[in-house]
Design goal:
Elements lengths: L3 H14 L11 H32 L21 H15 L16 E5 L5 H14 L4 E5 H11 L8 H10 L2 E7 L7 H17 L4 E5 L3 H8 L1 H8 L3 E5 L4 H5 L4
Parallel strand pairs: 1-4, 1-5, 2-3, 3-4
Bound molecules: adenosine-5'-triphosphate (ATP) and magnesium ion (MG).
Adenosine-5'-triphosphate (ATP) binds next to helix 4 and helix 10.
């Protein structure tokens, strides 16, 4: 960092050389120093964000978005009915207001969301639009299916695993936004493992006021039966619930996307 006297020198030389019609950004050496410190902080934050994203990609073995949904954005979401327009507007507002997690009574909340509804209605599409825009704004965000999550944790228990369970859990809990996809799809004998894992991650993130999104075909009661009162109560109060009740977009396109 430049000293105050050096800043004064630099500023004096700049002011001497500057054409008369150019407005100086900083007029005193104190202003120049303050500006340099601000810029330094911005660069440091950017480096930290890039490191966090790189660590996430190492832990997941991929970027925050799967190739299938790479092109999903707010602009190419077709909203024909009022319900669809509302879902689009709410998802867009969620992105624009991200990080301002304040409830109606003014207290801080985790500010997560649940997109619940039929297959092929665009839950992934709109969640991807949120995540892509957040990544563009240097936030660290990812969508992961519950099946992939379970598989990553199982792999982390292996003796020679390069990523240990504690690291995986810590990194997932530090994401600015984590979207859990296909919540409630698996009905295997490993159900207890899945539910414990989900509860642990959501619970920990809620306590740290970190938002978690959930995409599911389950309705409220089914989700409540899966995740329990405590988690659901917190997730819904202070979070966003969007119902996706229309027909599958895949059926109108005539095939599985
Ligand atoms: N309203 C829409 N406008 C444009 N494309 C859409 C719309 N709804 C869905 N799609 C597209 O249809 C395909 C299926 O949508 P998506 O994967 O988001 O559905 P989903 O609600 O997550 O379904 P599932 O419950 O089966 O996971 C995707 O390619 C998505 O981009
Ligand atoms: Mg989906």
């Amino acid at each position: 960092m430049m000293s105050l006297s050096k800043s004064a020198d630099v500023l004096a030389r700049f002011l001497a050389l500057k054409p008369a019609h150019v407005e100086a950004h900083c007029k005193t050496s104190q202003e120049l120093m303050a500006w340099q410190q601000e810029e330094g902080k911005k660069v440091a934050k950017r480096v930290t964000d890039l490191n966090r994203m790189a660590r996430l990609e190492r832990v997941l073995g991929r970027s925050g978005i799967q190739p299938l949904h790479q092109d999903c954005g707010f602009r190419n979401y077709l909203a024909e009915t009022e319900e669809q327009q509302q879902a689009l507007a709410m998802a867009q507002a969620y992105y624009l207001n991200f990080g301002q997690n304040v409830t109606e009574n003014g207290s801080q909340s985790h500010g997560g969301f649940i997109f619940s509804g039929h297959v092929g209605t665009g839950k992934n599409h709109l969640a991807t639009a949120i995540v892509r825009n957040l990544i563009k704004d240097n936030k660290v965000a990812a969508i992961i299916t519950v099946a992939e999550l379970c598989q990553k944790f199982r792999a982390s228990y292996e003796k020679n695993s390069p990523v240990k369970e504690a690291t995986l859990l810590k990194d997932l809990c530090q994401l600015d936004l984590l979207v859990l996809d296909e919540v409630g799809v698996q009905k295997s004998s490993h159900n207890d493992f899945e539910i414990n894992l989900l509860s642990q991650i959501i619970d920990r993130r809620q306590l740290q006021l970190k938002p978690t999104g959930m995409l599911t075909n389950l309705n409220y009661d089914q989700l409540l039966a899966l995740l329990g009162d405590r988690i659901m109560d917190r997730q819904v109060n202070g979070g966003l619930w969007i119902p996706f009740t229309w027909q599958s977009y895949r059926s109108r396109k005539g095939g599985r996307a």
